[in-house]
Design a protein that fits this description.
The protein is an alpha+beta fold and about 240 residues long. Helix content is about 20%, strand content about 25%. The two termini are about 25 Å apart. The structure holds the ligand Nc1nc2c(c(=O)[nH]1)N[C@H]1C(S)=C(S)[C@@H](COP(=O)(O)O)O[C@H]1N2 and molybdenum atom (MO). Molybdenum atom binds next to loops.
Length: about 240
């Protein structure tokens, strides 16, 4: 079973009306529903604007250029260039807090690869751009006892993890841009993690904290059954083409 599926059909804080409505239509199998009229009808019912649905329910529909909007939190505060902060702490010699301007001033890396969600959807050739996570780790001075990273998010709920070796890969970014635009709120802006070689659940949206730890602490979906090492095509019992 795929835990994300149950999240999608029964998200935290979903108004009962929606849940009943979706239950009536039997949308557990929405992956096979593709009639455009039905999609539009559902989007209208859910408020008309897919990217305004904090529950991610409309995210089950094929929209947004192939992307689904996912959030396990019912609502997420908006952070601007003035209010956003990213903290780097834990087993480091120089903990610090970055503003968006600080992050923009660092060297930027642009990668163009396929995005692959563990529920099956894939978005080919998606540009992501930002600061290599390794750059922030080097600046922080990671201590020798460190083994892993814990990521936290300003949605107050989602968490993720990487081993230190994974985190130091050149295709792991603290991303400021996606599809050659600043990352909008719904895609996890202003700053999200981007872990190119792994299933998209590793790419934590609304990133607010990077804590260096002495062991991997499984993230939100991983506690619910997803693989901690989430290589595309080599985890979660899936055989997708690698994204790199
Ligand atoms: N904070 C946060 N990050 C998250 C999620 C989430 O619910 N909350 N969902 C994950 C999953 S399962 C996927 S597939 C992608 C979806 O990203 P998108 O909404 O930009 O398409 O975000 C990942 N990062
Ligand atoms: Mo996902």
């Amino acid at each position: 079973m795929n835990p994300e599926r149950s999240e999608a059909s029964e998200p935290k804080g979903t108004p009962v009306g929606r849940r009943v409505f979706l239950g009536t239509l039997g949308l557990g199998a929405l992956g096979v529903v593709a009639a455009p009229t039905l999609q539009r009808g559902l989007e209208n019912f859910l408020g008309g604007v897919a990217d305004k649905d904090p529950t991610g329910l409309t995210g089950l529909l094929p929209n947004g250029g192939g992307f689904r909007y996912y959030s396990v939190a019912a609502s997420v505060p908006h952070k601007s260039a003035t209010t956003y902060r990213l903290t780097v702490d834990g087993l480091v010699d120089h903990p610090r807090s970055y503003t968006l301007a600080d992050l923009r001033a660092l060297p930027q890396t642009r990668l163009v690869k396929d995005v692959q969600c563990v529920t099956g959807w894939r978005v080919p050739g998606t540009p992501f751009e930002g600061v290599r996570l390794s750059t922030l780790l080097d600046a922080a001075g990671v201590r020798s006892s460190a083994k892993a990273i814990r990521f936290t998010c300003f949605d107050g709920t989602y968490t993720e993890s990487l081993t230190l070796d994974q985190a130091r890969r050149p295709d792991v970014l603290v991303a400021l841009r996606m599809q050659d635009k600043n990352i909008g709120h719904d895609h996890g802006g202003p700053v999200r993690l981007y872990v190119a070689p792994m299933y998209f659940y590793k790419s934590a949206k609304w990133l607010s904290g990077i804590t260096v730890t002495d062991r991997v602490k499984p993230g939100y979906w991983e506690k619910l059954g997803y693989d901690v090492d989430a290589w595309v095509g080599r985890s979660n019992g899936r055989t997708d083409e690698p994204t790199s």
